[in-house]
Amino acid sequence: MQRRLNIFFRKEETGFHGWFVMMLFLAILTGIGLTGCKHKNKTGDAPLARVGDKYLYVNDLKEIIPKGASSRDSLLFCQSYINKWVHTQLLLHQAERNLPEEKLNFQKRLEEYRNSLIIYQYETEYVIQNMDTVVTDKQIDDYYKSHLKDFQLKENIVKVIYAIIDRKREDSHQLEKVFRGMFHLPDSILLDSLENYAPVMAESFSTDTNNWIPFNQVLKVIPIETYNQDIYLKNHRIIRLKDDSKIYLLKFVNFKIKDDISPKDMEANFIRQIILNKRKTEMINQLRADIFKHAIKQKEFEIY
């Protein structure tokens, strides 16, 4: 065992010497500070490192060593931490020596930051406890109609139904005929048919006609080649494509072209958040005004 430890520490002798780290680790495990050091702290703990007049003690490391770590991992952690501490203190020492005094005075900024945090926390709790978070469909509709110019599409969007068949299947030809017939049915019947048969017959499929998706997202699944998306969408309703491994069938249920007005159902969640944020801002402004009015009434402050 001793021979293994010696071999280990010879390998680990980088930065701080292996024997030092071994003493450190023993000190941490036993709770006993390194002996022979002159600069013990108030608890009699011996230092592990010094930069200028700053010392790093054994107790500084005891609480931060990962629980359950092996002896080797703990040693490596201690080595890394001490080296990092030394580098940080050296950099801090250099900064303190070179920065002018006014640059080192953070008291005012810390106080302002603390005040901001306290106010923010209070206002957040007040809003959580008092704000009405219900947004009705009518409120969404009213906002949408009065801000149509703000909802201009930046890309083409679609609602689609599609199915993909694996050409390696022995019955792929028959399946293609079945699905081609389905895709010429009315949308409601097509959706029911796909829900019943596609899980078994298709490699993958989608019947989600409730949500709008970017046309570019469809192109990642269906290998449509088009040089002008606008013209393509206006002139295609049902498409069938093949490549070496798959058969693709797709039906465009609806589409909107870039620069059109975005559909309300696509923007509903965004509008809801806008309305809630507006309520929050108004509530906070009212809270601040009420506090000020109350303070005036109670003569809680004076301006000289």
Features:
304 residues; alpha+beta; Chitinase A, domain 3; 5-stranded antiparallel β-sheet; two-stranded antiparallel sheet; 12 helices; flat; disordered N terminus
Ranges where pLDDT stays below 50 over 5 or more residues in a row are 1-21, 28-37
Helical run tally? 12
CATH topology of the domain at 153-256: Chitinase A, domain 3
Which sheet architecture does the biggest sheet show? 5 strands, antiparallel
Q: What class, by secondary structure content?
A: alpha+beta
Measured distance between first and last alpha carbons = 78 Å
Textual characterization of the structure:
- This protein is an alpha+beta fold.
- Helices cover 55% and strands 13% of the residues.
- Strands 3, 4, 5, 6 and 7 form a 5-stranded antiparallel β-sheet that branches. A two-stranded antiparallel sheet has the order 1-2.
- Helix 7 packs across helix 12.
- The N and C termini lie far apart (78 Å).
Write the layout of secondary structure elements.
Blueprint: H1 2-11, H2 18-30, E1 47-51, E2 54-57, H3 58-62, H4 71-98, H5 101-104, H6 107-130, H7 137-146, E3 157-166, H8 172-182, H9 187-201, E4 204-206, E5 213-214, H10 215-219, H11 229-235, E6 238-242, E7 246-256, H12 264-297
Antiparallel strand pairs: 1-2, 3-4, 3-5, 3-7, 6-7
Helix pairs in contact: 2-4, 7-12
Short description:
By secondary structure, the chain is α+β, with helices and mostly antiparallel strands.
